[in-house]
Design goal:
- By secondary structure, this protein is α/β, with parallel strands linked by helices.
- It has helices spanning 2-41, 53-60, 80-96, 117-125, 139-146, 176-186; strands spanning 48-51, 70-75, 102-107, 131-134, 156-160, 166-171.
- It has a six-stranded mixed beta sheet with strand order 1-4-3-2-5-6.
- The protein is globular and about 40 Å long.
- The N and C termini lie far apart (84 Å).
Length: 190
C-alpha cells in the first residue's frame, strides 16, 4: 500500500512540476511574442510620395547622369494580382539594389489612400523601395508616357535599360525567374 501511495505521490509531483515548467515556458514565449509585436508595430510605415505627370516623366528619364537600369512596377492595394506578386518584388529589390538596379513602385490607388492603406500594405510587405502614388488628371497620358503598348492593366512591370529603352515589360503577375533574367542582361558589368 505504501509503495502504491508513494508511486501516486511521485506521479502527482512529476505532473505538477511539468505543469509549472510548461506554464513558465508559455509565459516567457508570450512575453517574447508581445515584445516582437510591440516593436514591429512601432516601425513607421514607408513614406509614399505623390507623383504628378511631370514627376513621372522625370522619374522615367534615363541619361548619362544616371546610368543605372530602372525597374518600375505599377500596382494598387485593391488589385489582388498586385498583392499576390508583391513578395517577389520585395525579393527583387533586396537582391538587386546593391547590384546597380533602381527600382520604384507606383501605386494607382486614390490619393486619399496615400497616408493610410498604401503605406500600411507596404509596411506589411516590408517594402523599402521608393514608393509613389500617381495622381494625374489624364490616366491615358500617363500610360502613354510609360509605354505606347501598355493598355493600363495592373500589375504592370517595366524594365528600362540605362539608355531609357524598355527591355522587359509584363502586364499581369511576373514570373520571378523571367524578371531576374531580364535584369541580369541590363545590369552594369564590373
Amino acid at each position: 500500500m505504501r509503495l502504491k501511495s508513494f508511486f501516486i505521490f511521485s506521479l502527482f509531483s512529476f505532473l505538477s512540476f511539468s505543469v509549472v515548467i510548461f506554464e513558465a515556458s508559455a509565459q516567457k514565449a508570450s512575453k517574447t511574442t508581445t515584445k516582437k509585436t510591440v516593436s514591429s508595430s512601432k516601425t513607421k510605415p514607408p513614406v509614399v510620395q505623390k507623383l504628378d505627370m511631370e514627376g513621372l516623366k522625370r522619374l522615367l528619364q534615363r541619361d548619362a547622369s544616371n546610368p543605372r537600369p530602372l525597374l518600375v512596377n505599377f500596382w494598387a492595394t485593391w488589385c489582388d494580382p498586385c498583392r499576390e506578386e508583391f513578395p517577389d518584388l520585395v525579393k527583387i529589390d533586396s537582391e538587386y539594389r546593391a547590384k546597380g538596379l533602381d527600382f520604384v513602385i507606383i501605386s494607382l490607388d486614390d490619393l486619399v489612400d496615400i497616408k493610410t492603406s498604401v503605406p500600411q500594405f507596404l509596411k506589411e510587405m516590408k517594402a523599402t523601395m521608393p514608393s509613389y502614388l500617381l495622381h494625374v488628371e489624364d490616366q491615358s497620358e500617363a500610360i502613354a508616357a510609360v509605354s505606347e503598348t501598355w493598355g493600363g492593366g495592373l500589375p504592370a512591370t517595366f524594365l528600362f535599360d540605362p539608355q531609357g529603352q524598355i527591355t522587359f515589360s509584363k502586364t499581369g503577375i511576373i514570373k520571378l525567374s523571367e524578371l531576374k533574367d531580364a535584369i541580369n542582361k541590363v545590369l552594369p558589368t564590373k
